[in-house]
Amino acid sequence: MRRNLGVDARESRRALNLLWSALRYIMWVPRWGTLLYLMSVETQNLPEFEDIVETMSYLPDMDAKYQFLIDLSKRLAPLGDGEQTDDYRVWGCQSMVWIVPFRDEENPEALRFRGKSDSVLVSGIIATVLSLYQGKSPEEILKLDAQPELKRLDLESHLSPTRRNGLMGMIERIREYAVAAIEQGA
Questions:
Q1: What is the mean pLDDT of the segment spanning 103-114?
Q2: What is the pLDDT of residues 14-70, one digit of tens each?
Q3: Is 52 exposed, middle or buried (0-12, 13-18, 19+ CB in 10 A)?
Q4: Which residue from 77, 154, 173, 184 has the highest number of Cβ atoms inside 10 Å of its Cβ?
């Protein structure tokens, strides 16, 4: 005899698929009792922004959301020695933040970014912002209104005023890079 527990099978499958997408880059190693991230240190493997939004919507509380951001920070590619300079610094952040633009080799019209902070939580916020802008043309970056997109994450109300200023500084810095790319192409 089957009982209906009030759980729609499609919703259950969707939740399991979402959980799998959040966990697919980690693996349990019983002997060490730790998690290993399955990505090359030299590559940046950020999820799509929509996947981040969906995952964040299923997380039960801010502690889980902060942990997810910290996990995202580990997926950022490292910056080179010459990239942690004032040329790439984002000013106005409570933490030290650098965002470095580069052209996508497969799609030269698109801009891509690498970033880093001295704070793992802020690095997770950087990863989220970069996933919003990755692979877009400079024109698309300037047309994109980031604030409504980021509100979908429900983070701003939980960030301190200085962290919110830093978030806005990251967005402004990326927009400056887009303007500079357009001016160079003209």
A1: 86
A2: 665 555 445 543 433 333 333 333 333 345 789 999 999 999 999 989 999 999 999
A3: buried
A4: 173
Distance between CA atoms of residues 115 and 44, nearest Å? 10
Q: 163-184 in b/e burial notation, b at 16+ Cβ within 10 A? A: beebbbbbbebbbebbeebeee
15 alpha carbon, distance to own chain's centre = 21
Q: Are 146 and 129 in contact (CB under 8 A)?
A: yes
Tokens of 21: 């997408």
The amino acid occupying position 171 is I
Name the residues annotated as catalytic: 93
Tell me the HSE value of 72 on the side-chain side, using a 13 A CA sphere. 30
42-185 is classed CATH 3.40.50.1110? no
Of 84 and 11, more confident: 84
